[in-house]
Fold each of these.
Amino acid sequence: MPKTPSQASTAWHSPLWYQRFFAWAMATAAQGYETKMADRKRQLFENLQGEVLELGPGAGPNLPYFKPHIHWLGLEPNPYMHPYLQQQADELGLNIEVQTTTLADIAISDNSKDVVLCTLVLCSVPDLESTVQDILRVLKPGGQFLFIEHVMAPAGSFLRQVQTGLCPLWQVIGDGCRLDRETGKVIESAGFANVDYQTFEAPVPIAVVKPHIMGVATKAS
């Protein structure tokens, strides 16, 4: 049945409607970014093996880089992402397990994952420091945390001032995404045995999300 104007307005502002829209947007509008980031992702994910946990896999842009022999668990709190994930996995011949939750809300055993990975996720978790500590906790000794994240621009830069000013509005339109996180520093101070990452400008047209980091943090053996 067609919605009346009032029903359509209610649907537009409801969290479920927004989750559905955001899932569609991530599955369609992000293709340009993914194409331009393909070489970097290929490099970062080339040696994945064993028990792999991905946080916030979204519509599955990282799945094409994974080998069929890994055991992949994705924690994706937006249920409208799941059909896109499953379709992508079916096309690639991957067996995946997806749960509608976050790392903070699921009991994953300590020292149980060979790899934890996330891309463009830590910008929107409610508690960045706690999330990184949970990642460290669930990794096996010698396990690796792989990440690509947009971050705050260098101190003193004009772009950093713009990010700070836009952050409240950006959180609303970006499903909780924050522009003011210094994620690299948080990972460095979390207690990993080694943290190795590079900073770069992502090939995106929106300046406030150009500053990126990509790297690997390794848990002590």
Amino acid sequence: MRFVELVVNPDEGWSRFGRVVADDPGVTREAIHQLELMADGSVVMLYELSGDHDRITELLDEHFDADASEISEIAGNVLVYAHHDPSPTVDGLLRIPRELGIVVDTPLEFTRDGGIRLTLVGEEADIRQAIAAVPESVAHTVERTGNYQPDQTRLFAELTDRQQEILLTALEMGYYEQPRRATYEDLATELDCTKTTVGEHLRKAEEKVLTGIAPD
């Protein structure tokens, strides 16, 4: 079983709501935890957002067109359940793995430029065919490929792109060593961000990892 990790980014963006969120400094798209194309052509999804909760609710009410939706909290962020009609671009992309019998691993993670990082799992020939079928209007870049091992990077993959970057930097600089060789201030300088940002992302990353390894 093979996998390929790639980033896809449509020229026109993912949706009207996605474009609005991308332009709002108070809200960030974190990940899509589930995304399924239904038999009637509609989509059900679990969509994680971070930022001001009131602002997220306001944007959802004004710009998110869904047949049904519900929001809840997850690790301090907002998790949106939605059942809606996809854009033609999303519909076309979702039909590619469905027609070729390829698994799309989750979560799907948003990159800083609004693309989505996803992992396709299946036979190598089918994966190649899937990549070749991506429309020209959708920019795509293959980042990694290899033999699929579902448990090896599961917890790390559940972190957002920024959480991964900050956690790896903390490990490399000795933040978790005893005695510590780096502080929040050291990490903030290395990452060109504030100490508050470092602390917020590390706490969320630690919570996800610890929750994942703790017994039920």
Amino acid sequence: MMALARAVALLVVLGASCGYAADIGYLAPPGVPAKEFPAPQRAVAQIVSPTRASEEHRDSLNEAGEIARLLELKPGMTVGDIGAGAGYHTVRLSPLVGPTGSVIAQDVTRRYLIALGRRTQRLRLTNVTFALGKPHDPRLPASSLDVAILVHMYHEIAQPYTFLYNLAPALKRGARVGIVDIERPTSEHGTPIELLRCELTAVGYREIATYQLAGDGGYLAVFSPPENRKSPRDIVACGDRAGAR
């Protein structure tokens, strides 16, 4: 009987996992293809892990709380956790935006989203949606986000100009984009702030503010989306500035 019970329990877990796997896909049609845009003139870091550091360490720095405060996140908002990975921010944003708000956890690695789906199920977080994306396209619904956060992952975006261009339609009027990274070459899993400013400005984003986060948390750069997207052929790639490699 014990063996039968364990087998049934395993089937339940596998069934839930398969259910999440079936539900995870693209939430919007494809955007503009990458071939229309310039390639980045700097190194692109490889995706090596779904998390940057231990959650205990990040909590000790109040990373999630500080980002939420600086971005003025409130109940009822829809927040996109772009490059959600293991879901450090997703599971903390979910209670913050509350039952009238939602979190869209987006990533290009499907198995990360499947694991995060299991995690949100265990935590009984019912306001989280999962969105698979492409390296050049987040594939998010139009006018769906009040805020998008990209935390310690910008340097891993293989086609930044295309990605930023295709992200813009998902942002509501008055939305903000918060990018967290560290002052380190992109090949070393960071993004020099001047390079970040150059790449976002090239697509038409406007910088609102930049903040230094506690400890080794890096910086938070806040941007507003383009009011009118320029033609992809008018976007000029930023040069490989000192420190970008």
Amino acid sequence: MDDRDREHLAVTRIALRPVGTPLPLGFLGLVVATAAFSCLQLGWVPADQHRQVALGALLFTVPVQFLAAVFGFLARDPVAGTGMGILAGTWATVGVVTLTSPAGASSAGLGVVLLCAAAALLVPTAAATGKLVAAAVIGLSALRFAVTGIAEITAAPDWRTAAGWCGLVLAAVALYAAVGFELEDVRRRTVLPLLRRGPGHAVRDDSVAAQLRGVAREAGVREQL
């Protein structure tokens, strides 16, 4: 390292913007969409109400999950950003197709998209090793989309029912996760078990200096992604 490099490092400063966790917002948006579509799939809501359910996903879930994705990346959490971004795009697709289709119709094309989205969600699920409850939400979302995709391709009532129940289980887990992460952020301590481990657990205990030790090698700071 020459004198010029040392001088450059001596004056370099990395500014970090404090950002609240976007996970509760994204998970609550997920609760609304998956629960509403489950009620439609299980026949608890009349089939001719499909457009109202689709509008709920498009006007509520998609915007809040897109916002959660943006702030996930701003908070330097690629798992949150990637997961919420995939969820936002998938629910937007489901909402538009449902809105423009006849009541009770199935779409093999939508089914293929859902299976691809389920596969894509396995990436942030596999990476979320430090926050197991968050990983469970993303993983269950992948399962929910996979089962719904099969239901759309086969048009089988049993698969549609299975997708509805998967959606309700996902809604319950996502609601628990939203409450847990919200309480943790507000009270500055873990209230509900979130099964943090490794790096996910260290963020609650390590000093600021310890957490920022590798920040110079993070995306947005290093020269290349």
